[in-house]
Each structure stands twice: as C-alpha cells, then as structure tokens.
Amino acid sequence: MPETATLPEATASATPAPQKNAPVKGRSLWSDAWRDLRRNPLFLISAVLIVVLLVMVAFPGLFTSASPRDGDLTKHFQGDPNYGHFFAADWFGYDGQGRSVWARMVHGARASVIVGISVTVLVTIVGGTIGMLAGYFGGWLDSLLSRITDIFQGIPFMLGAMVVLTTFAERKVYVVIAALLFLGWTQVARIARGAVITVKQQDYVQAARSLGASTSRILFRHIVPNALAPVIVVATTALGGYIGAEATLSYLGIGLSEPAISWGIDVAAGKDALRTAPHILISPAIMVSITVLAFIMLGDAVRNALDPKSR
Fold first, then answer.
1. Does residue 60 have a cis bond before it (omega within 30 degrees)?
2. CB 231 within 8 A of CB 124
C-alpha cells in the first residue's frame, strides 16, 4: 500500500510580541485650557484685536505719520472724515485745534493700555498676595486682612478714585495707576482667599505638610499653581474695566490731562462739537468700546477654558 501522505505538522501561529504601551503624557489644567482656547472663536477674535492694539501701542508710526500734538487752525473742523484715505491724517478728520483725530486715536492707545495693564498686574500681585496669606494662615491674620478688605470694598470704586485723584494737582499716568490700584485689589483678594482655602484642604497639600515641607515650598509649589486659575480669570476680565475707568476719569477731567494723549481726553474735547462734528467724539469712543470688549471677550474665553463647569 502506498504510504498515506501525512499532513504537515501544524505550526503554531506566530503570536505578535507584546508591544509596550507608549507612556501617556499627562495633561494638566493649563494644557487643556490652551487646547480649548485655540478652538474658541471668541478667543481668536479677541486675541487678534488685542495683538493689533499692542502693536499700535508699541509702534504707532506703523499706523500714522501725522503728529498727534501739532495742530493747524486752518483745518479747524475741516470737512467730514475722509474714510477713503486709509491711515492718512484726515482719515477721521480734524479736531477743534486742527489736530488729526486718527493720529490722536493711535497715540492715545498707549496711555489707556498702559494704565489698564499696569493696574491689572499690580492688583493681581497685591490682592493675590493678601488673599493667599489670609486663606493659608487663617486665624487672626485672616480676620484682620478680611476686615481691611471689607473696608476698602465698601468704598464705591469710581467715587473713591475721583476723591483720591482730586487731591493731586498734577495727574500723570502713574498717579492714575496708583489711584485705581488703591481701590481695585479687593475683588482679587477675595477670589484668591477662597481658592487657597479650597486648595489647602486637598490631600497632596496635607501630605506635603506631614512630610515636613516648608511653608514657602507648600505655598509656591502646591498652593499658588493650583489656586491661580480663578485669579487669572478675574484679572483678565477686569483689565477692560480698568481701561474704561481711565477713559471715564479722563472724560470727567479728573484723570489724565493735557499734554497727555488719551481716548478719554479726546472724548471730553469732542462733546462740545457733538452736533457739528460728531466724529470728534465718536471715533475715540469706539476705540474705547472695542478695546474693552476685546478684553471682556478674552476674559470670558479664559474663564470657559479654566472652568468648564461655567459653560
């Protein structure tokens, strides 16, 4: 009999070698927030507006070659704005002293933005420090700092700023910044205090304290990074308000004054010619509104990114 063909031995199917899973990179609150911000149209629009504004502040010569102070009385309220002459001296017409309205709008951005950013940074530092010390140490220090905060918060912001500024004969940029800082730190202090009280009860803070970590290490390595998000949200939103406050005080004649160049000063100068030349008042007023709106939009976008529950 012929030999029966034997089936070849079944070879065990080769099983792929187990692959090691690539380590998953941990995501932090800040990385998630940045990813959400990049997808938020509100943030993109506000960021573009703010970047253009900052470039205008740093390099006004890119937007106009006209002088904001040199006037020509032959151009006193001369005609209507020539909206076809982009970036030209007569783009938005001339004011009562023959000065280019567009040039004053461009150069006036510097004082308003410097006041807004400076006050925001100083308010965040002063208010954040007071609130974090009160929230972390508690006890008599918390009671003392909280009562001081209550006293300052009981003073109406604009009324208090007006009273402070009227005590100075010459009101320059640093005087306006100091007046707004004097009354503007209370909200940040309260937010920082509440955030620190919440963070210091977390397990990782308790573990660091039980391991003998110093107070400074606990504050700067654990408390501050995790309590900073709500403070940044409040500060970003308030920045536009400080720019509006500076313009309001200058309009009332108790903020910046000539020879300083400010949107509030130009709005005040244009109110007398509202019927005959409304563009003198409306043009800088629109710049104030756009700037304040841009920072408010930025604050809303940052708040939504750092606190998804608020959406």
1. no
2. yes
Contacts of 160 (CB under 8 A, 6+ apart): 182, 183
Query: 158, 241 in Cβ contact below 8 A?
Result: no
Is the Cα torsion angle 31, 36, 37, 39 positive or negative in sign? Answer: positive
Q: 178 phi and psi, to 5 degrees?
A: -65, -40
| DSSP state letter for 200 | T
**What is each CA distance from 37 to 33, 308, 309, in whole angstroms?**
6, 12, 15
> How much of the chain is helix, strand and coil, in % rounded to 5?
65, 0, 30
Cα 134 to Cα 48, 137, 217, 227, distances in angstroms: 38, 6, 17, 13
Q: Distance between CA atoms of 288 and 39, rounded to whole angstroms?
A: 27
- Token pair, residue 196, equals 């620190």
Mean pLDDT (10-residue bins), the chain, 311 residues: 46 48 56 80 91 92 86 65 78 83 90 92 94 90 92 90 88 90 92 90 83 82 85 88 90 84 88 81 90 90 72 50
Residues 91, 94: Cα–Cα separation, whole Å: 9
3-class state of residue 96 by DSSP? coil
> pTM for the whole thing?
0.81
> What dihedral angle (degrees, nearest 10) is formed by the CA atoms of 174, 177, 179, 181?
-140
